[in-house]
Design a protein that fits this description.
The chain is 6% helix and 59% strand. The protein is mainly β. It has one domain: Beta Barrel (Porin), CATH 2.40.160. The protein has a 14-stranded antiparallel β-barrel. A hairpin with a 2-residue loop joins β16 and β17 (369-383). The longest helix has 21 residues, at 2-22. It is elongated.
Length: 432
Amino acid sequence: MILRSSILAGIFLLIISPVIVEAQNNSSPYSIIGLGNIENSYFNRYTGMANAGVALSDSRYMNNSNAASLSKLSNHIFTFELSARAIVSTYSGGNLSTINPNSTAPSPTFDIAFRRLSVATKVTKNWGSSFGLQPYSTANYNYTASKLVQGSNSNQLTSEYQGSGGVNQFYWANGYQITKNTSIGVNSSMLFGSLKQTESILNNAVLSGLNTTDNIYLSGAYFNFSLQTKKRLNHAWVSTYGITYSPQTTLHAAYNVAVTDNFSDTLKNDPTVNDRFTIPAVVNLGIALIKNDKYTFTVNAQQQNWSTIRGNTIQQVGGPSYQLTNSNKISIGYQNSNKLKNIYGVEYERSFFQFGLYGGNTYLNVVSQQVTDFGASFGYGRNAKRSSLGYYIALEAGRRGSPNSNVLSENYFNLNIILSYVDRWYKGKKYY
């Protein structure tokens, strides 16, 4: 009964989360490009380790960054996880100005939303399976800029740009242990969502106003293949290795353009056009060293090959001031696990804390400057002693931008919260 109520509550919270998000004032100017801001976080137990979890697995918590890790979940259990994130961001550079007459700098933006709902279980002794819903990318911005309009009394007109939407990822992940120390996995996903941008000309030169709305609808299958293996170095140390690979994928894109005036009269409405958006191949590599099943040191490296993609209409939006380029990221993490024994002599994890550092180049090159992303993270988790509940909190603080003052820079602070519930599955039965 408790499990059923938890699942229903989680689904309800995900359904109403878009309503909650609309009440926030988050604005991310970089999300105007391509699919928006592509998520770098997996919203899982390893967020506090700078998301460096490709080589790691856990018997209780799901690791959705590597499907092969699902084979390491405890037998006969059912796991439910719900993740939320709050973001506070400030911006500088890029000739940014404020509309607040009492301030010389833009006000911080704020956003809070549920980010992941996942369910997992062990189907057999060697096979773990999970399905869930999480964001792949998000777009949300609102700003004004000058626009050159030929034939107007003024060469420069003021335009307001508003954008929203994103791409969601519904996935079914499976991990299978093929040998004592090696597991393989595959994450089969469906990406779907929509992006909306509205341009409004605010200058008095256009008396009736002019509003142009672009709607883009995207969908397509997406796959990720993975492997994990480990090797005992001595009685105290174990080394683990992980790799994931997502091949280049093309999403179907349908879009239309509608032009209206301020009286809601339609001036133009182009029919839906079929197009495509290509997601590049992505490789993640990870290695970890674990001492006495308590201290964990891990390093991850990621590469995305955006520069090989050409000819995508959506990716060409935005003008000549930017281009897509290869991205890379290095993450290092540390974890200290506090393990105790219960009255039956069975060891269990009471709590854990984490620390991480990350840095790299994003896939955006703006005015000949590649945008970088650097930051640090901290995490703490605790499992209830007399119930099946667990909670985890991770903090991330970083900066995305460039030393060039002409490039917009973002300072962000993220608070991630994960609630975990574990229950017995197949009670009174054995499947092996």
